[in-house]
Write a structure and sequence with these properties.
disordered N terminus; 101 residues; RHF-like; alpha+beta; Double Stranded RNA Binding Domain
Length: 101
C-alpha cells in the first residue's frame, strides 16, 4: 500500500506554550482520525493564549487534503489536551460522513 495513504505528511504551526508531548498527542490524534482516508497532507495548528480571562484559551485545528478537497475541523477548550481530544472526535465524524457520502 502507498505510504502516503497510511502516513500523510503533517505540518505543524504552534503558538504559545505548546509542549512536544502535546504536539505528539495531536499528531497521534490526527493520524487516528484520518486512518485509511488517503489524506495526502495535513496542516495542524496548536495554540494556547496566555490570558486567564478567556474561557477556552487552547485551540487545535486541522486541515487535511483529501482527493483534492479540504477537510477541516477545529476545537477550542480550557486546555490543549481537551482541545486535541475534541479535534480527534470532530475529524473522525467528518471522515465518517465523507466515507458515507
Amino acid at each position: 500500500m502507498n505510504a502516503t495513504l497510511e502516513r500523510p505528511e503533517i505540518r505543524f504551526l504552534t503558538s504559545g506554550k505548546v509542549t512536544d508531548a502535546r504536539r505528539a498527542e495531536a499528531e497521534s490524534a490526527v493520524r487516528e482520525a484520518l486512518a485509511g482516508t488517503g489524506a495526502a497532507s495535513v496542516h495542524v495548528t496548536l495554540s494556547v493564549v496566555a490570558d486567564p480571562s478567556l474561557p477556552r484559551p487552547a485551540l487545535a485545528r486541522a486541515v487535511a487534503e483529501l482527493d483534492g478537497r479540504q477537510l477541516r475541523a477545529q476545537a477550542a477548550a480550557p486546555t490543549l489536551e481537551e482541545a486535541i481530544g475534541l479535534l480527534r472526535h470532530r475529524l473522525a465524524v467528518r471522515t465518517a460522513y465523507r466515507r458515507a457520502g
